[in-house]
Amino acid sequence: MLVFFDESGDTGMKLGAGSSRYFVVTGVLFLDRDEALRCDQAIDRFRQKSGASGREFKFAKMPDAFRLQFFQAVQSFEFLYSTFVLDKSLISGPGFHDSRSCYKYSTRLLFENMAPHLRDAIVVLDRCGNRDFVNQLKKYLKTHANAGERHAVKKVKTDDSHKNNLVQLADMVCGAVARCYSSSAGNRRQFRRLIEHNELEVRIWPTATDAT
């Protein structure tokens, strides 16, 4: 079992002054390693076919036509995804003003949502930040994901996204979901519709009710 993780937006709290309203984290889950390999190979074939040799697929940097082709290339593969959407406009606690705490909290809630579906999973994170932070995040995920009798996570490791097609897939899926909330465009759900059959859960927190 493999899980690939990525995020969209930022953890800054200066809304209206450069920070995004939403911080979105996504985990893409493959129950079968062979299926993960087949999807990886399909992304390589798409890269060659589209003349994008050496290119890293990132949702934020691709035109809509290219996004559409990417999702069409992967939509037949058996993967699942879960997403946590943090609406920063509805939170005010002091802990959320620390970017590391905000990142870890969002990641924790994502994995709480995914935990019932995980068993001895190998989790791959996009390598980011300094080494101390990455190591702290690894320990945090394993501790919380494996609370009690659960053995949800076997190993947490990092990889450079430009070398890992399935981390890039997580970026694309996360971007497709994030666009549903961050954009007012009429086609904002266009790409998410292509992968809705892969969706485990999308959780938005807090809701207006939670914040009152």
Description:
- By secondary structure, the chain is α/β, with parallel strands linked by helices.
- The protein has a single domain, classed as Nucleotidyltransferase, domain 5.
- Helix content is 41%, strand content 21%.
- Strands 5-4-1-2-3-6 form a six-stranded mixed sheet, sandwiched between helices.
- Helix 1 (33-49) runs antiparallel to helix 2 (64-74) and helix 3 (99-114) runs parallel beside helix 4 (131-145).
- The longest helix is centred in the C-terminal third of the chain and has 18 residues, at 165-182.
- It is globular.
Quick description:
The protein is an alpha/beta fold.
The major pleated sheet works out as:
6 strands, mixed
Spatial extent as radius of gyration:
17 Å
- The CATH class assignment is Alpha Beta
Under CATH, the topology can be stated as Nucleotidyltransferase, domain 5
Can you tell me the CATH architecture? Answer: 2-Layer Sandwich
The mean pLDDT is 89
How is the largest sheet built, in terms of strand order? 5-4-1-2-3-6
Distance between the termini: 39 Å
Helix/strand order, N-terminal first: EEHHEHEHEHHEH
In DSSP terms, counting alpha (H) and pi (I) runs of 4 or more, how many helices? 7
Percentage of residues in helical conformation: 40-55%
Q: Please tell me what the overall shape is.
A: globular
Instruction: Please state roughly what percent of the residues sit in beta strands, choosing from under 5%, 5-15%, 15-25%, 25-35%, 35-45% or over 45%.
Output: 15-25%
The secondary structure category is alpha/beta
Low-pLDDT residue spans = none
CATH homologous superfamily heading: Ribonuclease H-like superfamily/Ribonuclease H
Number of domains: 1
Number of strands: 6
Protein name: DUF3800 domain-containing protein
Organism: Rosistilla ulvae
Pfam families: DUF3800 (PF12686)
InterPro entries: DUF3800
